[in-house]
Backbone:
C-alpha cells in the first residue's frame, strides 16, 4: 500500500513577511552606507587637497590640476622648518603646551564639577547647572574681548597664561561630565567607599576617576581639538610671534602671501603637518572609548 504525501502549493506571489522586511532593511542599510560615504568624502576632501597641494611647488599650486600631485613635498617641508630659524617648531611647541595643559586641566575641572553636580546636593545646584548650560550656548568669540580686558588689568596679556587660563574652564565639558557621572557611577559604590573610610578626595581619585575614564577621554579630546584649532583667543591675546600657536602663525604667513606668493605653499605644508598630531592622538586614545556607559562599574 503506497502512502502519498500531499505538498501544498504556495502561490509564487505569496512571500513571507520576514523576507519583505529583510529586503526593506537591506535597502535602508544601503542608503545609510551611501550617505555615510558621502559625508566622509565631504569631510576628508579638504585633507586630501592639502596633502596633494603640499607636494607642489609655488608655481604649480595654481597652474596645475587640483588633484594632480607633484614631487616637491620634502622640499616644502624643509623650507617650512627653516623659516626664520625654525619658528614653525616654536609654534608647534606652543600649540602643544596650550592644548595639552589646557585640555588636561580642563578635563580635571570638568570631572570634579560634573561629579559634584551629579552626585551631591547643595543649595543653588540647579541654578549653577543652568548657568553652565547657558555657557554652552555662548560662542567663545563673544567672550574673547571681555577676557582680554580682564587679563590686561592684571598684566597677563601677551603671555602663555592669557591663552591657558580661559581654556581651563569648558562648560560643555562640565555638562558632558555631569551626564556621564550620573550614568556610570552608582550611588551604592560611593556609599561603600565611605563605609570603608574613604574621604571625598580619595573616593574621587580612586573610585570616580577610573569609572569615568572613557567619558573623560572624550572630554579631553573635544577640548584638545578645540584649543588646538582656536584662533581668535590667541590672536587677540598675543602680540609676540614667538608665543603664537600654529593657527595664528600660519595666518600671519598667509597674509604675507599677498606680496610673496611663495608663502602660500608654506602655509599649505604647515597645515598638513599640524593635523598629524591630532590624528596620532585620536588613534592612540580611541581604545579607551566604550560603547557601554556602564564600563568599569560594579555589576550585580
Residues:
Amino acid at each position: 500500500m503506497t502512502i502519498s504525501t500531499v505538498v501544498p502549493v504556495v502561490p509564487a506571489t505569496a512571500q513571507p513577511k520576514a523576507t519583505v522586511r529583510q529586503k526593506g532593511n537591506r535597502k535602508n542599510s544601503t542608503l545609510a552606507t551611501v550617505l555615510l560615504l558621502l559625508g566622509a568624502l565631504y569631510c576628508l576632501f579638504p585633507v586630501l587637497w592639502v596633502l596633494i597641494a603640499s607636494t607642489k611647488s609655488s608655481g604649480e599650486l595654481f597652474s596645475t590640476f587640483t588633484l594632480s600631485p607633484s614631487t616637491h613635498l620634502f622640499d616644502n617641508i624643509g623650507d617650512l622648518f627653516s623659516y626664520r630659524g625654525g619658528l614653525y617648531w616654536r609654534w608647534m611647541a606652543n600649540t602643544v603646551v596650550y592644548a595639552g595643559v589646557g585640555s588636561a586641566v580642563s578635563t580635571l575641572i570638568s570631572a570634579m564639577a560634573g561629579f559634584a553636580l551629579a552626585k551631591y546636593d547643595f543649595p543653588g545646584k540647579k541654578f549653577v547647572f543652568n548657568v553652565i548650560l547657558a555657557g554652552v550656548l555662548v560662542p567663545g568669540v563673544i567672550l574673547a574681548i571681555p577676557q582680554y580686558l580682564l587679563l590686561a588689568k592684571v598684566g597677563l596679556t601677551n603671555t602663555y597664561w592669557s591663552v591657558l587660563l580661559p581654556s581651563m574652564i569648558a562648560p560643555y565639558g562640565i555638562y558632558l561630565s555631569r551626564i556621564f557621572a550620573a550614568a556610570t557611577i552608582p550611588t551604592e559604590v560611593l556609599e561603600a567607599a565611605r563605609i570603608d573610610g574613604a574621604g571625598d578626595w580619595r573616593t574621587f581619585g580612586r573610585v570616580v576617576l577610573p569609572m569615568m575614564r572613557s567619558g573623560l577621554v572624550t572630554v579631553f579630546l573635544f577640548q584638545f581639538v578645540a584649543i588646538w584649532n582656536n584662533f581668535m583667543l590667541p590672536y587677540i591675546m598675543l602680540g609676540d610671534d614667538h608665543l603664537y600657536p600654529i593657527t595664528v602663525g600660519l595666518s600671519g604667513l598667509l597674509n604675507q602671501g599677498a606680496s610673496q606668493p611663495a608663502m602660500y605653499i608654506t602655509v599649505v605644508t604647515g597645515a598638513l603637518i599640524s593635523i598629524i598630531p591630532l590624528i596620532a592622538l585620536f588613534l592612540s586614545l580611541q581604545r579607551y572609548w566604550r560603547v557601554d556607559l556602564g564600563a568599569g562599574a560594579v555589576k550585580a
